[in-house]
Write a structure and sequence with these properties.
Blueprint: E1 7-10, H1 16-29, H2 41-49, E2 53-59, E3 62-71, E4 80-87, H3 96-110, E5 115-122, H4 126-134, E6 138-139, E7 143-148, E8 154-163
Parallel strand pairs: 4-5
Antiparallel strand pairs: 1-2, 2-3, 3-4, 5-8, 6-8, 7-8
Amino acid sequence: MSFKQIKVRQYEEPDLPQMIDIWNEIVKEGIAFPQEEILDQDTGKEFFLQQSYVGVAEKIGMIYGLYILHPNNVGRCGHICNASYAVRSDSRGEHIGEKLVLDCMEQANRLGFKVLQFNAVVESNVHARHLYERLGFTQLGTIPGGFRMKDGHYENICPYYKEL
């Protein structure tokens, strides 16, 4: 697979089964997403419809990754958005995450958001952290024991942000 051949676009309903599989893979790993519930076709469709934008990394009908984008808060803080990224485990290391983050920043800007913030980047997720830092995100600090891993132990989380 070539990095240049993968395109990021807005998701369409026929993408849902692959998207749900990728999302559930991350949830089952239990080391990155705060969610513990597995999505089925109905809850997955509802979940993705609730987002401000959902992008997928696609090549010839195959989905390799996705992101969700939504407000981080409401009212006076509604200009700050939040996003989560998921890449199929057999496709990691192919720079798909970078394409997803770059597209997410464009879409967030297009939707009128001023800041993109990540609330709960697990400290041991060094690949994501290096990507965010390389793309100009700033770490806000560290929250000790802010994430409960699948095996029950707690790890630090590192919030990040970037002005758009």
